[in-house]
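Customer escalation, tier 2.

The customer says the design service returned an amino acid string that "doesn't look like it belongs to this structure." They asked us to rerun it and document both sides in this ticket. The original structure tokens are below, unchanged.
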């Protein structure tokens, strides 16, 4: 089992920045990818960024809507995942969820979510 706890959400004006953090604990060694998803009211949960832990490329992948504005990163020593969000827009308003997975084992984990609200 893996436990994920997000922090860092809040209210910010358009053009501002926020940094989300995700603290992971438990069977971290069994995870092969971590990332961020978001869900706006009345919409489905969508991928924001994903980091693979191994393979041909370990560079994060991003949703087109956040490329150039958001940066995902890991701190292996702290078992932490971060999402630096710059140039925020009102359409970035959503609950942001930390996610960890090992699809080969059929393991998928979610945090409780943190609210990000961007005012115009």
């Amino acid at each position: 089992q893996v436990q994920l706890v997000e922090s860092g959400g809040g209210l910010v004006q358009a053009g501002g920045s926020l940094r989300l953090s995700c603290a992971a604990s438990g069977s971290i060694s069994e995870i092969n990818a971590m990332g961020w998803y978001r869900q706006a009211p009345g919409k489905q949960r969508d991928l924001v960024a994903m980091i693979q832990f191994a393979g041909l490329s370990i560079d994060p992948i991003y949703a087109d809507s956040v490329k150039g504005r958001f940066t995902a990163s890991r701190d292996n020593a702290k078992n932490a995942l971060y999402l630096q969000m710059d140039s925020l827009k009102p359409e970035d308003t959503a609950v942001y969820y930390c996610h960890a997975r090992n699809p080969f084992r059929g393991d998928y984990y979610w945090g409780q979510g943190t609210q990000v609200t961007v005012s115009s």
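Tier 2 assessment: The sequence is consistent with the input. The mean pLDDT is 94. The first strand starts at residue 2 and ends at 7. Sent an explanation to the customer and offered a walkthrough call.
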